[in-house]
Amino acid sequence: MDRSIAIRADGVSKRFAVHTRKATSLKERLVARRHADERPFYALTDVTLAIEAGHTVGLIGANGSGKSTLLKVLAGILRPTTGTVDARGRIASLLELGAGFNGELSGRENVYLNASLLGLTRRETDRLFDSIVDFAELGESIDNPVKHYSSGMYVRLGFAVAVHVDPDILLVDEVLAVGDEAFARKCLGQISQFQTEGRTILFVSHALDLVETICDRGVVLDHGSVIYDGDPAYATGTLRGLLGTDRNPADDAGTPGLTIGGITVAGEAGEPARDEFVGGDPMAVRIVLDVREDVVGSCHELAAVVMGAGGLPVWVMRVTPDGGLPRLPGRWTVDFVTECPPVHGGFRIAVRVADAAGTTIGAAQGGQTFWVRTGKQGGLVDVPFQVKAEGVEW
Amino acid sequence: MALTEIAEDRARTQTRVRWELLRNLIRKDLKVKYQGSALGFLWSLANPLLLLVVYTFVFQLVLRSGIPAFGFYLLSGLLVWNAFAGAVGAATGAVVGNAGLVKKVRFPLVVLPLTPVGFTAVHFLLQLLVLVVVMLATGYTHLLSPHLLLAVPALGVAMLFTVALCFLVSALNVRYRDTQHIVEIALMAGFWINPIVYSVALVREHLHGGWLYDLYYLNPMAGVVTAMQSALYGQNPTLPGGQGALADPGYLFYLERLGIGGLISGALLLLGMRVYARLSADFAEEL
């Protein structure tokens, strides 16, 4: 294995036997014969993923896309049906905070028990104990039975133990969503400390904004396969497109007299659609709509809204009858010709037709996400700048 | 440090971590069991003492088994049987009962069936201590003979057999939940098959001491129980039928049976560990 790779999955598939009736008893197995009512279900299909040491990777996907299964396979909890998993270094998996805590025991006893489950010796735990209690902000409560803890105290203690295991690779499954904001901030602080220490983090989350912020790579799973692997902003854009959460259902409302037939993003007006642009490229957005005679009079404005991550409107292009919008019933073809702005990310287009009072009378969304890449500076927007710097010798 | 030394050092650390984990889990089970009870540990000592009184009354005065100091005879075999049965019974649910842990945390799964073994071993040793103290306090001097040394190989075989079965049943119960019912019935049957509440002389008499009697000892616990009776009970009174209450007055008989039992247990242990290793890879999936 390449030295720079911390954890690697190679052609990993995971098949689960789905029992239509749960047949776990001997009699049922004998009576039902072999596999008679088993229907194989592939939670993962041929997943290949190599994560370099020191990277933070966000693993995203819809519910049931195989994220947790992949995490468990990487953590060594589940055995892959085919394929191999290699890891270099100590893995800590945070699949559930405080898994293995016993309510009857005190926090102190649970810390020792949990730490030894995660692979620490007693001496190591002795050394880390104060720091763990400190991190969990438990103070005197550490000697109370865990069953009397609030859920916040519980997850703080679970997280505190897990991060003190000193992992080289941290696998995190949606555990940051459980506590309050202060806890979430603390966890994120710990994660960014791990990042600066060069540890490898694989992070499963439904908080897509968080993935965009803290990850340097995004992997999208869909029905057990990796469908995108790369820039986190593109990854979340892909997932949003998949989930349809970049659409606002209210936007599809309208009047029967007006049908938006097509939205195409291309380099030049009339060219076939294109889905990748570099900031500064010529860009043409073509909107085709059918307008019946009874609504023609009320068509006061057509707006094309270019939306980025989370449905955020990034820029809007409008046209009114005075600006050239046709006044005749029939099929309209409207081209907005522009230059692609240097804004990094994945975008979709929403079209809205409004009457003079501003009420929406027709709306639709473009089906295809298009990507805009910017220059090499990084960041959301590429802003031209000049540099002037000088040094004075001491 | 050379690379091989580092690897060895790491392996040693890993082994130490496993033993510490096992110790912590046993300690947890003990703590949880006695949490909140005022007398705590004393309860598990009271249990055999109560048995001593009840069984002495029933078998010596009511049923007249003909075995003198019947309570001591009984406990000599019963304590080790109870430890065995308790460990195997608890091990059956050891993996299934920790489903939450198995599915969420990667840790050496091998500790799960061993935890009930350690837990019952602690109880057994304390109960044994109480029995010995009571025997000495009541002036039961038969205990103090070289026969007492038989307890060492007997407990060794008992431990081996227990661990072997614990591996087997804990793993099998994940896939086939019938295991727990089979184990329950088998342990119940085992209690009566082994000469615990009666003398092995009855078995010998019925099987005429021939090859069937040898077959009887293929059950390792028969050797363990009779050896413990020789070790602790220590006397060989003549029963009304003219036979001695113990299996044999000497040593060799027990050592032979324990040797066979040890071999059988060893083979079972290898089998159990293989089965456990194979099935444990899919525990997280099957639970």
**Which strand-content bin applies to the residues of chain A?**
25-35%
Strand % of chain B is under 5%
Across the major sheet of chain A, the strand order is: 5-6-7-3-8-9
Average predicted confidence as pLDDT of chain A: 84
How many domain regions of chain B? 1
CA-based shape of chain A: elongated
End-to-end distance of chain A, in Å? 49 Å
> Between the first and last Cα atoms of chain B, what is the distance in angstroms?
43 Å
User: What is the CATH architecture descriptor of the largest domain in chain A?
Assistant: 3-Layer(aba) Sandwich
Question: Helix segment count of chain A?
Answer: 9
Could you tell me the radius of gyration of chain A in angstroms?
27 Å
* Oligomer description: heterodimer
Question: Which CATH class of the largest domain in chain A is shown?
Answer: Alpha Beta
Low-confidence stretches of chain A: none
* DSSP summary, beta strand count of chain A: 18
Largest sheet of chain A at a glance? 6 strands, mixed
Order of helices and strands of chain B: HHHHHHHHHHHH
Shape estimate of chain B: globular
Q: Please tell me the overall pLDDT of chain B.
A: 89
Sheet/helix structural class of chain A: alpha/beta
* Main interface: chain pair and counts: A-B, 32 and 29 residues
